[in-house]
Amino acid sequence: MEWLVSLLGAGLVMVTLRDLFHTLWHPTRHGGLSRLVMTALWRLARRFRTRGRVVGLVGPLAMVTVVGVWAGTVVLGWAIVYWPHMPAAFTFSPGSEAAQEPALLDSVYLSLVTVATLGLGDITPGEGWLRLVSPLEALVGFALLTATVSWVLEIYPALTRRRVLAVRLALLRDADPATRQLDSTAGALLLDGLAVEVARVRIDFTQYAEAYYFHDGEDHSSLAATVGYAAALAEHGQAAGRPDVRLAGRLLAGALADLAAILDQRFLHTGGTPTDVFAAYAADHGRAS
C-alpha cells in the first residue's frame, strides 16, 4: 500500500512535467493546463470588458497562475512520495521536533525545502532509494525555475512582433496610400514585407498560443483592430496592373489565410472565411475590425 501511494505521487509529478514540456518545448506547444487556465481567465475577463485593466491582466495573471499550479503540484506529488515512509525512512537532526509533527506536514515541508533547493538538512532521507529520489526533486525545481524564465523571455518578443505589425498597419491605414502608389515597385515591396510579418505572427500563434490571451491595449497596437486593413491591402494588390504587385498581393492574402486558419483552429472555432475569422478575432478582443 505504501508503494501505491508513492507511485500515485510520482504519477502526479510526471503529469505536471508532461504539461510543462508540452507548454514550453513541444513544437506545437499544446499545453493542457496552461490553455485551460488561460481560456478560463479570458472568458471570465470578457464579462468585465468595459474594464480595460481587467482584460489587460489576463495574460500575465494566467502565466503566474499556471506556474503556481505547476510548482504546487510538484511539491504535492513529491510530498505524497515521501508521506508513506515518514518518519521511519528519514533521519532528523538532533534536537529537531520535526519527528513529532504529523507525517504529512513533514512530507510537505521536506518537499518544499527540496524543490526550492534550500537544503536545510533538518530532515534527510535515510533509505538508499530516497537518497536518490530527493536530489531529483531539486533538479525538477531548478528546471521549473529555468522554464518559467524561458517562458517569459520567449512570449514577450512574440507580443512585440505582433504589436509592431499592428502599428505598421495602423500607420498605413492613416496614410491611406493611393492605388497608383501601391501599383509600383515600392508597393510590391510593401506587400511582400507585410506578408513576411504576418507569417511570423502566424508562427508565433502556433508556438506561443498563450500570446493570444494578452490584450494589446490601444487600437493602434492591436492586431485585432488592424488586421482587416491588411486584407484590404491584399485585395488591392491582387487587382493591380503590375505582375510583381499582384504576386505580392497573393502572398499577403495567403499569409492572412494561414493566420486566419490558425486563429480559427486554436481559439475562435467559427468555421468561416478569413473575413469571418478576423471579425470574430476583433470582437473577442473588444475591437472593431
Protein described:
The protein folds into 2 domains: 2-147, no CATH class; 155-284. Helix 2 crosses helix 4 (58-82), helix 6 runs antiparallel to helix 8 and helix 8 (185-207) packs across helix 9 (223-238). It contains 11 helices and 2 strands. The protein starts with a helix and ends in a 5-residue tail after the last helix. The chain has a two-stranded antiparallel sheet with strand order 1-2. With 289 residues, the chain is mainly alpha-helical. The mean pLDDT is 87.
Distance between the termini: 60 Å
Roughly what fraction of the amino acids lie in strands? Answer: under 5%
Q: Average pLDDT across residues?
A: 87
Rg, nearest Å: 26 Å
Tally the helices.
11
The secondary structure category is: mainly alpha
Short description:
The chain is mostly helical and 289 residues long. The chain has helices at 2-24, 32-46, 52-56, 58-82, 103-115, 128-175, 179-182, 185-207, 223-238, 243-268, 274-284; strands at 90-92, 123-125. The chain starts with a helix and ends in a 5-residue tail after the last helix.
Write the layout of secondary structure elements.
Blueprint: H1 2-24, H2 32-46, H3 52-56, H4 58-82, E1 90-92, H5 103-115, E2 123-125, H6 128-175, H7 179-182, H8 185-207, H9 223-238, H10 243-268, H11 274-284
Antiparallel strand pairs: 1-2
Keywords: Ion channel, Ion transport, Membrane, Transmembrane, Transmembrane helix, Transport
Pfam families: Ion_trans_2
InterPro entries: K_chnl_dom (IPR013099)
